[in-house]
Write a structure and sequence with these properties.
By secondary structure, the chain is an all-alpha fold. The chain has a domain at 38-117. It contains five helices and no strands. The model has no long low-confidence stretch (mean pLDDT 80).
Length: 132
């Protein structure tokens, strides 16, 4: 069993990223934001702890009614308009957040690379060919 947020609808008449570009023309859409390598990493890695805190709160459902801005301009950043509640809800402690943030921090020289903060791009120019 898998719980997916969006049902698979198969291939459409155009690549999804182009469809998103049309649907969200002039507006921010997180999937479009993550297409340009380095842009989201620069924003999110500037303060991983704060980034995760805002993102976890945003996804929790408690952000509804807290002034969350959902209609942002196309040039907005992911964290623009995300509330940072004071105090943070009890379901995530500072120690928990410290642990999660550590998992995304860049490692010291000679160690393995960290988990990426951004998903793989949808732009076909970055996709690898599928062998049959």
């Amino acid at each position: 069993m898998a719980g997916l947020s969006v049902p698979h609808t198969g291939h459409g008449p155009m690549p999804r990223i182009e469809l998103f570009g049309e649907l969200y023309k002039g507006r921010f859409f997180y999937r479009l934001y993550f297409q340009e390598p380095g842009v989201p990493e620069t924003e999110l890695e500037a303060n991983v702890w704060s980034s995760l805190r805002k993102i976890y709160y945003w996804g929790s459902g408690e952000a509804i009614g807290s002034g969350l801005k959902v209609n942002k301009p196309a040039d907005a950043r992911l964290l623009d308009g995300l509330p940072d509640p004071q105090p943070f809800p009890a379901w995530l402690t500072a120690a928990d957040l410290d642990y999660y943030a550590e998992q995304f921090e860049w490692p010291s020289a000679g160690s393995s690379s960290p988990r990426p903060l951004s998903p793989a791009p949808l732009n076909p120019r970055y996709e690898l060919p599928v062998s049959t």
